[in-house]
Amino acid sequence: MAYKPYDDETIRRLIDGDPRLGLIVKQPRQHRKRFAVALQREQESVQEAGMLGYQARLLVQCSLPYRQQLVHEWTRRNGGLKLSVMTPQTIGLPYGAYPRLLLTWIATEAVRTKKRHLELRESLTRFMADLGINRHATGPQIRRFRNQVQRLFASTITTYSDPTVEHQPFMVQTMTLADDMVLWWNPILSAPDATSYLVLSEKFYALLTERPVPVDLRVIQALKGSALALDIYSWLVYRLGYLKQSTTIPWEVLQVQFGGEYAMTRQGRYEFKRKFQIQLKAVLQLYSTAHVTADSQGITLQPSRLHITRRPAD
Predict the structure, then answer these.
(1) Which of 290, 225, 268, 282 is nearest to 66 (CA)?
(2) Separation CA 106–CA 205 (nearest Å)
(3) Quick check: 16 and 143 in contact, CB under 8 A?
(4) Helix, strand, or coil (residue 27)
(5) Contacting residues for 63 by C-beta, under 8 A, at least 6 apart
(6) DSSP 8-state symbol, 311
(7) Is the pLDDT confidence value at 197 over 50?
(8) Which residue in 41, 42, 40, 24 sits closest to 32, CA to CA?
(9) Beta strands 156-161 and 298-302: pairing type?
(10) Neighbour order of strands in the sheet with 73-78
(11) Tens of pLDDT along 206-229?
(12) Is 135 in a helix, a strand, or coil?
């Protein structure tokens, strides 16, 4: 699986001839890219475009950090479920958009191939291009991505039920992401016939492939500049996929799930609400069938048409 690049020429080709072109070309490039993806979604289904991807349901419900953390354990809560991510002190927790893009690629490949053994590109820059990051990545970008790969695969994930919730059993599951991993991405260590690969752990493979959340990789690429936007998009696809009636989610609840880096103070709530609404607006540009409104109390979700229409064979 590889993302299709949206360079300036591709964007202009997609929107050329559209009556809205005169307004769109004056917008920042990121806005034009989102418009181009939205237009392509109107013209071609995700299956026809070959851009159907997947994400692990659990990791959609509980997100990773958005910024670098000084601690080495990250805990998120969603209802009665808690998720804890731990890494060695010398490595640090994964954060930002790169781990999310990598997890999407891993889940998509695991579902597509039905295998725990996944082969990676022979070079780091080509693998980054497969993820839609940058076909001409700079040195700092390459180092940041390599660092996030190391942080992610050094992590241990623990899921457990909230022990304070009555009338439910206390359950714990701990897993690593991979049983084995070899990366020939250092030019000094490279060998002519070397193959980079990873072997997913049985528990993590099951986590990825049991009822995964389908996503449109074109949308993932258009939102890759914001980890929060990526999380909001995946979460909306998941929630609206089974929603049967109108549901309002208070800002306080959303902050627990998405805003762990904001203080639970009046100022912290204000900043979280402001940032969330900015990224929600970007997501809804690409997920136009999502019936979502925001007000001073929270966001309201209404039953919506499926973002990705299931085919009879799916």
Answers:
(1) 225
(2) 9
(3) no
(4) coil
(5) 76, 231, 257, 258
(6) P
(7) yes
(8) 24
(9) unpaired
(10) 73-78, 81-86, 156-161, 172-176
(11) 999 999 999 999 899 889 889 999
(12) coil
Q: Which uninterrupted H or E stretch holds 186? A: none
Q: Which amino acid is at 262?
A: Y
In this structure, which amino acid lies at residue 41?
Answer: R
Determine the pLDDT at residue 156: 95
Helix (H, G, I), strand (E, B) or coil at 204: helix
Q: How far, CA to CA in Å, does 307 sit from each of 55, 89, 148? A: 14, 40, 30
Do the beta carbons of residue 244 and residue 303 sit within 8 Å?
Answer: yes
What is the rounded CA–CA span in Å between residue 39 and residue 160? 42
Q: Which helix (H) or strand (E) holds 159?
A: strand 156-161
Cα separation, 268 vs 291, whole angstroms:
27
Please enumerate in sequence order all residues whose Cβ is within 8 A of that of 19, keeping only pairs 6 or more positions apart, or say none.
none
Measured distance CA(43)–CA(158) in Å, rounded = 42
Contacts (Cβ under 8 Å, ≥6 apart) of 130: 1, 2, 3, 105, 121
Residue 30: which of 274, 226, 290, 216 has the closest Cα? 226
E-strand ranges in 25-155 read 52-55, 73-78, 81-86, 117-119
Q: Are 50 and 39 in contact (CB under 8 A)?
A: no
DSSP result, 231-283: HHHHHHHHHHTT--S-EEEEHHHHHHHH-TTS-SSHHHHHHHHHHHHHHHHHH
pLDDT digits (tens, 9 = 90+) for 249-263: 999 989 988 877 787
Residue 286: strand, helix, or coil: helix
Cβ atoms of 266 and 251 closer than 8 Å: no
